[in-house]
Each structure stands twice: as structure tokens, then as C-alpha cells.
Specification:
Distance between the termini: 40 Å
Low-confidence stretches: none
Number of helices: 0
Radius of gyration: 13 Å
Largest sheet: 7 strands, mixed
Length: 115
């Protein structure tokens, strides 16, 4: 069974940076790696942030040019480097992995950006 655990969240001032990590276990024999980051701000729906599918990356327009998704398959890790953070980036950030049609979610890590 696939398990995901996010870390790296915290509180930063606007303009700062954070790197989120997602440790995966059981993510084997899933075909192409399909991993994403989502976020959910208080009172809002969960929204897509970035996706890494095989070697292809996509980003939400709101984070394009500021966030970078990457993976270290040897360490079973997914990362999200977040630069130039803004108060509107404040949210709980979730890691998601797809394996043979089933989606798995982590518990989330909180990011708070103050102005």
C-alpha cells in the first residue's frame, strides 16, 4: 500500500522560500510515476499546484516561475521548492500519488506566509 508523508512546512515572511518534502513508501510497480502537490486554504477548495508525471512537469498559473517540483526516485522522495512566497500561498499542502488508477494522499503540511 502506498503511504505518503509530507514535511517541510512552516511560517515565513513574504518573499521567503520553503522546500516541502513528501516521503513515499510502497510506491512500487505503479508504472509511470504520477505525483502531484495540491493545497487547500481555509474556507477554500483543494487546488492543484504542480504535477510530475514520468519526467514531465506542470504547474498552476499562480505558482509558475516560483515553484519547482522534483523527485529523487532513489530516495523515494518528492519535493516542492517554493520561492518568492506570498500570503496567498498560505495553505495546507498535500502530496498525491497515483498508482494503477488509485490515488493516495498524505496528511498535509502547513505553510503560512505573512506579509
Amino acid at each position: 500500500q502506498v503511504q505518503l508523508q509530507e514535511s517541510g512546512g512552516g511560517s515565513v515572511q513574504a518573499g521567503g522560500s520553503l522546500r516541502l518534502s513528501c516521503a513515499t513508501s510502497g510506491y512500487t510497480d505503479c508504472g509511470y510515476r504520477d505525483m502531484s502537490w495540491y493545497r487547500q486554504a481555509p474556507g477554500k477548495e483543494r487546488e492543484f499546484v504542480s504535477r510530475l508525471y514520468s519526467a514531465s512537469t506542470t504547474y498552476a498559473d499562480s505558482v509558475k516561475g516560483r515553484f519547482t517540483i522534483s523527485a529523487d526516485n532513489a530516495k523515494n522522495m518528492l519535493y516542492l521548492q517554493m520561492n518568492s512566497l506570498q500570503p496567498e500561498d498560505t495553505a495546507m499542502y498535500y502530496c498525491k500519488a497515483g498508482c494503477l488508477g488509485t490515488m493516495y494522499w498524505g496528511q498535509g503540511t502547513q505553510v503560512t506566509v505573512s506579509s
